[in-house]
Amino acid sequence: MFLCLSTSDEKWATRYLDSDARFHGPFSLLMLLEKANEVVISTMTYTVVLDSDTVQYYCSSHSHPVYKSTITMTSDIRREKAQCHCGTASVVVSFLSANPPIEHFLCHCNTCRHVEGQMAFYFLPIEGPPLFGGALFNAIAYKQGDVTSYRTSPNSVRYFCHNCSATVLRCDNETDWFVSGGSLCVDNKDEIARLAYHINVADTLDGGMSNHIPSVDGKKLPRYAQCKGSDELHMNWRSENLKSVEDAKKDTRLSGYCHCGNIQFEISRPNFLSATPHAPYPDLLYPRAQTRLSTVRNSSDEKWWLYPPVVRNHHGNTSTRPPLVHQDSVTRGTKYVAGYCLCDICRQSGGFEAQAWVWIPRSNLFERGSSKHIDFVDGPKRPKHLKQYLSSPGRFREFCDTCGATAFWWTTSRSDIIDISIGLLDQNVDGVRAEEWLKWYQDRLSFIETAHEDQKSIVRGLKSGLRVYKEMKHEETPGAQGAQIN
Known about the structure:
Layout: E1 2-5, H1 10-16, E2 31-32, E3 38-41, E4 44-51, E5 54-59, E6 67-74, E7 77-83, E8 90-96, E9 102-107, H2 110-116, E10 123-125, E11 131-132, E12 135-136, H3 137-144, E13 147-153, E14 156-161, E15 167-172, E16 176-180, E17 193-199, E18 215-216, E19 219-220, H4 245-250, E20 253-257, E21 264-268, H5 293-296, E22 306-307, E23 310-312, E24 318-320, E25 335-341, H6 344-350, E26 355-361, E27 365-367, E28 386-392, E29 395-400, E30 406-411, E31 417-421, H7 427-430, E32 438-440, H8 457-473
């Protein structure tokens, strides 16, 4: 049985729970009543007595009820588990199962992108505070240090796993709780929530990810400049505050940063050093589960992370295809390949279904305002606030230890090519999609075979939206079909 106090309880909750300010609000006393008749709230224990539609709370220091409230009793509660990749931040959240699926939005604001390292982000409202280890979330998890809190505004706090960086929860005004959609462990997410519209698109300066998800299941998604009901922006919208395409092409560095500013970096334009590493093909180009290992190994030594792709010829020189260029094959017009990953590791470590990465040679990645390359291996030389998570053997995720932003991914099998989280790129340089720097791969989403697209509206919308966007732009998608050029 589920007990939910009405909003009129807020005044009482604030008065009696001053010993722990995190419990202020109308939902501070929400709890599960099954067999036990006692519940721990903050540091005080109350005996709960139910009488018809009234609940009375007896404190050990009082012989009479310290509070009496009218309650709503319902069994129409759907409880679901939400957790990060490593499992440290694992909570139980509640939804009203009688409600239709929540029509949620994707938020494209600068805060969401630079706090999460995602192109966009969303939370779902839940009924009351989550349960952590069988108790109210704040009472145990926060005090044990299993999660780190980061305040994005005076009235909003996000909670992310201190070990793997996944944002799992958000609390507004100390009363209203939300769970990140990507952290939910639900077989069919469409039963709980469906994507309905985009907000804060104006912050992207170029439309951002909303251009990649214009609709879901044939239904057009409104693209609001700010909140719902504000001006709608069309697909070809580009902010007047953004520099012209010609000026953007002149930039030699593209910066990136997390929300708190502790992680800052710069990317340089591709040069001849960008074509020196060797790397196997990623799942974005060749599905790992369906491709021969000999193909994945990239025996032709194609520099697939560049567009146009660069292929070594018999003489050991590099050239692009087509057109054939024998000298300075990595030209001013060469871009870096970018794409989305839908794997469970990215979803559970980032709290969002679609992690956007761009592949950058380590020789083109610098500490901001410096000629020094970012060092991921040598402990003393690593950026001070960059924390490392071993997501699987030989594979590392790097994130900000202060705000939790996902920043980088790399593996020992190709340590010279670094995945950079596109959500951290400075939108003021070339917009969020940074299309004068990046070439978006539009024919495939990494690990889509395991993403259960039939049960996730975001995945379906992104898959179909990239095809529409490709047709609208009339672009050739970078591929892994390069023949060796002599």
